[in-house]
Here is the input.
Amino acid sequence: MLTDLIIPRKRTATCIHCGRSFEPLAFMAACCSDECVDAEKSRRGLDRHGNPVWRKALQDPWLAICPPRYAHFDFNKLPARGKAVAPAMLGWNPFHTPGKGIALVGDSDGGKSMLIHEAARQAFAAGWDVYCTLSTEFAWNVGHLDRRERYLQRCMDCAILLLDDLGKAKLTERVETDLYHILEHRERWQKAIIWSANSKGSQLATAMSEDRAAPIINRLRRSAEVFTV
Here is the structure.
């Protein structure tokens, strides 16, 4: 009789990566989704195919210092605003403008980060020592005493410093002081800076203290030829 049949309960398992319970489609399944597997591989320093990411970095040194999203430039993926300034940006040659870099200012989604990283890559390919960082990374690193000295020294020593998304980090007194120091040091030693920001200088200044706003903005302007996107 039908009442004598025992309906088996659905088997549940615990994902070995994220710890969530799930109903496996295959008997031996140990993870809940492909996304979870990819996240675990990324945490372990592997790509989606299980190959160590450091191998790629060895094959292409640029991948060791550039975020993967911006490592492979594609002009066709640039928004129209970015395409308009691309020739001028990518025509920059640090040999021709000693101590002076390039900068992009404009609203989000204009291709600023793509363009400045490609300009930096071209300089890197030509033999320049390039260091890429974010304004938020700058604030985070100078706020940690165990990282601050080594990080600031790298920002001063590199031949070309790429500083992306200025104005996105909270400018505490320490961040302002260290930012001013980096800009002053690099100007004195004629070392180029590539930077980007959403806001113009006058808007950036409103987030800074009164006694340091003008010196920082003036040095940013002098450090690079600024393009609007």
Observations:
- The mean pLDDT is 84.
- The two ends are 76 Å apart (CA to CA).
- DSSP finds ten helices and seven strands in the chain.
- Residues 63-228 form a domain with the Rossmann fold fold (CATH 3.40.50.300).
